[in-house]
Amino acid sequence: MLSIRNIVKQYANHRALDDVSIEVEKGKIFGLLGPNGAGKTSLIRIINQITAPDAGEVYFDGEKLNPDHIGRIGYLPEERGLYKKMEIGEQMLYLAQLKGLSRTDAISRIKYWFEKMEMQSWWKKKVEDLSKGMQQKVQFVATVVHNPELIILDEPFSGFDPVNAEIIKDEILELNQKGATIIFSTHRMESVEQLCDSIALINKSHKILDGKVKDIRNSYRNNTFRVEYTGTLSAAVDNSIYDVIDDKQLEDSQQITVKLRDGVTSNNLLSQLIPQVQIHDFTEVVPSINDIFIQKVKTSSHE
């Protein structure tokens, strides 16, 4: 759906993006990650044609990005931009028509979304009369009302309580199931784990990691396991097959986290433990996207 090729963006003495290339697969949810100031917003603005790159090219669905594509994209910016004094219904109608919908189609689509999001009574309200979370709902509807093929969401859960955050998450998944490609920029790593098929991590204007979430997590596996048990372990086992990373007493059991030595498998570990203790839980410790994010950013910043 989106091919970003060797993008460079310079602001005076600051290089916001330096030779960044990313491929966003059609029909997937793609996470664009990075710390504050990494260059994510600059890239999003280029995709939306708010600014232009100094070098490199962007292709949308096989065509070089051009103004005709704007109507096929929905963009929810981190800095929300609703007109505070304007009635919500009229504001939605105005924004939908800017995206190419006729007045009749716009009214029909707005009514559909207002009913879906339980906003039927909001048509005559003004934005300034709504809570922050309610305003976010309005902004979300404005983003998707024209049924865009590519939806770009910059911190979409900002300002939502847990219940409404879950509603928005479900809507994102439903839009994706209906065929929309979604670029999702957030600091909430648990959302990335739940929603994203693939990610790219940008730090200090460079892409430092990208790929499928599952493949990235698997590549960071390091033969570490957490075992909860009752009984007594022989110290000889510790010395022969693993190193203890953590050891703690739980209410009714013991829990250890161990890193297996080279050539040792989980089956080897279990065969040593089972004759000695009663195992209640055995889990491989695979780094989360949050763990990988922190590790990669620290490493690249140090370099």
Tell me about this structure.
There is one protein chain. With 303 residues, this protein is α/β, with parallel strands linked by helices. The protein has two domains: 2-218, 3-Layer(aba) Sandwich (Rossmann fold); 222-284, Alpha-Beta Plaits. It has helices at residues 40-47, 88-98, 103-116, 132-144, 162-177, 189-195, 213-219, 235-241, 266-273, 289-302, and strands at residues 2-11, 14-24, 29-33, 55-60, 63-64, 73-76, 150-154, 181-185, 198-203, 206-212, 224-231, 242-249, 254-260, 277-284. It has a six-stranded mixed sheet with strand order 6-7-8-3-9-10, with helices on both faces. Helix 2 packs across helix 3 (103-116).
Q: How is the topology of this model organized?
A:
Elements lengths: L1 E10 L2 E11 L4 E5 L6 H8 L7 E6 L2 E2 L8 E4 L11 H11 L4 H14 L15 H13 L5 E5 L7 H16 L3 E5 L3 H7 L2 E6 L2 E7 H7 L4 E8 L3 H7 E8 L4 E7 L5 H8 L3 E8 L4 H14 L1
Strand order of the largest sheet: 6-7-8-3-9-10
Q: What's the main sheet like? A: 6 strands, mixed
Q: What overall form do the CA principal axes indicate? A: elongated
Which structural category do the helix and sheet elements fall into?
Answer: alpha/beta
The helix/strand series, from N terminus to C terminus, equals: EEEHEEEHHHEHEHEEHEHEEHEH
CATH class of the largest domain: Alpha Beta
Tally of separate helices: 10
Name of the CATH superfamily of the largest domain: P-loop containing nucleotide triphosphate hydrolases
Based on DSSP secondary structure assignment, what is the total number of beta strands?
14
Mean model confidence by pLDDT: 86
Which range does the strand content fall in? 25-35%
Low-confidence stretches: none
CATH topology of the largest domain: Rossmann fold
Instruction: Report how far apart the termini are.
Output: 33 Å
In CATH terms, what is the architecture of the largest domain? 3-Layer(aba) Sandwich
